[in-house]
Amino acid sequence: MKNIFIEYPKCSTCKKAKKWLNDNSIEYKERNIVTETPTEQELTEWIQRSGKEIKKWFNTSGLKYKELNLKEKLGEMSDKEKIALLASDGMLIKRPLLISSKHIFIGFKEENWKEII
Q: CA-CA distances (angstroms) from residue 85 to 7, 8, 42, 75, 81?
């Protein structure tokens, strides 16, 4: 499986992550989180594989998250509803994402990403 790098091209953290991937000669397939938003099926699989809570997948600093008052609402939602919400709008998903056969990284922390090398 080729690595999938899911980004929002205007995001400065995504740009840093992409530069890091290129600098380390890591092959990847690029995907825009807004125009090619992950599906419910993809998110369900990735969330399970990541071992992280669903709330870690939300872009809590994003405008959309705040507009929808999700800090208050997420506690009342089922996991299925949360995943459907994430799949409905790429701007709700924390980014960048790096999906490989062995790892799933949410957000960019260089020390964690080194595991892929």
A: 18, 18, 13, 13, 6
The Cα–Cα gap between 109 and 93 comes to 16
Cα(58)–Cα(69) distance, integer angstroms: 12
For residues 7 and 96, is the Cβ–Cβ distance under 8 A? yes
- One CATH from 3.90.1150.10, 3.40.50.1110, 3.40.30.10, 3.40.50.2000 for 4-116: 3.40.30.10
- Dist. CA 54–CA 94, nearest whole Å: 11
54-89 residue pLDDT tens: 999 999 999 999 999 999 999 999 999 999 999 999
42 touches 67 (CB < 8 A): no
Evaluate whether 86 touches 79 at the Cβ level (below 8 Å). no
Pairing mode of beta strands 97-99, 4-7: antiparallel
